[in-house]
Amino acid sequence: MPYLRAVPFLIVLAIVLFNGLKPEPVPQLFVQQDKLHHLLGFAALAFTLRLAFARVPFLWGLSLTVAAALLIELGQGFLPGRTASRWDMLANVLGVLLGWGCSLLMEKWLRQRPAEPVAE
Predict the structure, then answer these.
(1) What SS3 string covers 61-88?
(2) Are 39 and 93 in contact (CB under 8 A)?
(3) Most exposed among 6, 64, 67, 76, judged by the fewest C-beta atoms under 10 Å?
């Protein structure tokens, strides 16, 4: 059931879209908490995209996630009560780069692991 790999990506995508495009921002407990949300949300999105669609070429996946990071933030500028911010865009893009970097490190680690012995 390889299609199950897409489930985490779809869940993260739904969370990012819902929180990014709802009329009111997420309440903050500390100053600039939203930047942490942006960073971690887009890192999770990029990481799970790579898990779900491992055969998508790296540059295509990176381009799609960077485009989503920028477009969601621009979309906030059209919502009442929300504003688009270049600092949020930067946090989004840094999150994408973090997620892709972690996925590449994971792939490298998985390739270097010794093969499991076959039980007879």
Answers:
(1) HHHHHHHHHHHHHHHHCCCCCCCCCHHH
(2) no
(3) 67
Contacts of 69 (CB under 8 A, 6+ apart): 42, 89, 92, 93, 95, 96
Which pLDDT band holds residue 5 (cuts at 50, 70, 90)?
confident
88 neighbors 35 (Cβ within 8 angstroms): yes
Cα 62 to Cα 7, 51, 70, 111, distances in angstroms:
19, 13, 12, 21
Would you state the pLDDT for residue 119? Answer: 66
**Tokens representing residue 58 in the block:** 């790296």
